Amino acid sequence: MLFRRLLTDDRGGRLFLAALGVVTVIVPIANLVMPPDSPLHVSTFTVALLGKFLCYALLAIALDLVWGYAGILSLGHGAFFALGGYAMGMHLMRQIGSRGVYGHPELPDFMVFLNWEKLPWYWHGFDMFWFAMLMVVLVPGALAFVFGWLAFRSRVKGVYFSIITQAMTYALMLAFFRNEMGFGGNNGLTDFKDLLGASLQAPSTRVALFVVSAIALAGGYLVCRYIVTSRLGRVLTAIRDSEDRVRFVGFKVEHYKVWVFTVSAMLAGLAGALYVPQVGIINPTEFQPLNSIELVVWVAVGGRGTLYGAALGALAVNYAKSVLTVEFPDAWLFALGALFVIVTLLLPSGVSDAAAAIKRLLARRLRHA
Amino acid sequence: MRETTVTAEPAIGTETASTPIFDPVLGTPDIGQGWILYLDGITVSFDGFKALDGLSLYVDAGELRCVIGPNGAGKTTMMDVITGKTRPDSGVAYFGRRIDLLKLDEPEIASLGIGRKFQKPTVFSGHTVLENLELAGAPRKGVWHALRARMSGEERDRIDEALAIVGLAQHAHRPAGQLSHGQKQWLEIAMLLVQRPQLLLIDEPVAGMTRQETEMTAELLTSLAGKHSVVVVEHDMDFVRSIARKVTVLHEGRVLAEGRMEDIQNDPRVVEVYLGE
Ligand SMILES: Nc1ncnc2c1ncn2[C@@H]1O[C@H](COP(=O)(O)OP(=O)(O)OP(=O)(O)O)[C@@H](O)[C@H]1O
Ligand SMILES: [Mg+2]
Questions:
Q1: For A242, which of B83, B124, B148 is closest by C-beta distance?
Q2: Which residue, of A65, A285, B193, B234, is most buried by count of CB atoms within 10 Å of its CB?
Q3: Are A231 and B138 in contact (CB < 8 Å)?
């Protein structure tokens, strides 16, 4: 019943989830079961890379929820992703215990190096997995709630909102660069050992993280579908199309915006938390404004307002990026810029639109043939 | 200077108007004293320019009032003040006797039962006609409620009723963006109706409508009066003549004249600024 509502009118979404399911089954088999010399073998490196892409896809869906549906262009979503990542990173640091270089039973290496005597108060509790997971969503959620409440209540919108979100992520980056903040300064958090007792280097852990990322992506997709197919979702699109009208119909526009911005930030935080153990590090560059802009390009490429389009955009652009940065390291930024221009000029609703255009073209061909 | 025959009717609560006993507590408007909308001395200035200059207007419960006036007279600004979009520099605005409109924001005022149709038709173009009405008619407007809400039979009935009144029943599932200009105007009126407002503020309902559409709109608005109080702003004189019982003429942000259409038309000052053109 619920699935009917979520997916009946969503052919793209059904295909997307089916493909995701297939990949989630095949990749672990290809990695763990196929012998390394088999042509069907998928290396652990690739598994981690794919897992990372899935986290990006979840992040893109989170952005599409606020941008594509509510018309709020956040250029600071990378900050929520990074905060979720830091929360996970803090847990992983605490898991190292006395196995650090300095062998301190409680303090992470960088704190010993800074001659700190004891753990800062905000590091307490992160040794517990459940607590860290709670913080993964609560910290980005709380920031988004306060930030959104202040901005939306003062009716900051459009490009002004975008600019202050850039400022927010930039300010956080500067803050996290400082050693005194207690998050490892510019080195960030790294040298993780294990998660829930499983070594992060083990292929099986990599595969497990990949599978969890895929499940989180599918879950995030369904949560967002639930939101956008509800009356709340219709209010959000109405806000995007005619904000004043929504007010005069009696809805508190600010409440809706804050709500969706917060939910989206929580999803972004979750994506960041899954990302960190797979890449093995989180540092302040994750906050850099450019990251948030890249994220917008993924969603624009995939087509906003479809959710699955955003996920596909993230996968496609990041695949292209991983190829291009190996072949032509300097060309990536230009390629990204060009991509953005092409998408905004030619495909205002992104690749999902292009797919429809190609289908129309093929249909015409077939008719003429 | 000759006092015009068409100043505000003295019958409208003159004794109480100077010392109104308003209770700021929210609630249904107490219309025991006759008027549903009470504006007094409203002044709005934009960078020194006075769009409204001591405007006073009293509308009776169940009345159909037409407001006319040349471009820039302040008609839309008046609606902005009533609906909470613009805060006046001075003056008072009450809904009924007890509700101070100047203390409330747009959604609160809308929820009290003041519905507004904009000068430029604004509907949710990405949504179907039905969805437009669903949102407008939603009895509870909170976020968490909206997440789980489903349309009740009662809501659906109300929507069907409104669709029938404006004649859009067969278009219920079309995206609102595809409707003709006139149909959008009607959809917007239907959106007002499902909100069950006590007071409807309607800004230029027949702009861009065909003759026939205009006549239907006139009929519709006339039928609404009595059940609701209606304030209509309109430029189309034939239209105003066809529905008007009482007309207020605005000029340069204040009331120039008020009274029956026949009297208004013969008022030399009104003829000078407006009708003569
Ligand atoms: N936000 C604003 N900023 C500056 N000036 C404004 C603003 N809104 C309205 N005005 C000015 O106030 C005056 C009254 O405008 P208003 O829209 O109320 O007129 P109107 O009677 O509705 O005219 P029309 O018949 O053209 O709709 C106009 O001169 C307009 O230019
Ligand atoms: Mg106007």
A1: B124
A2: A65
A3: yes
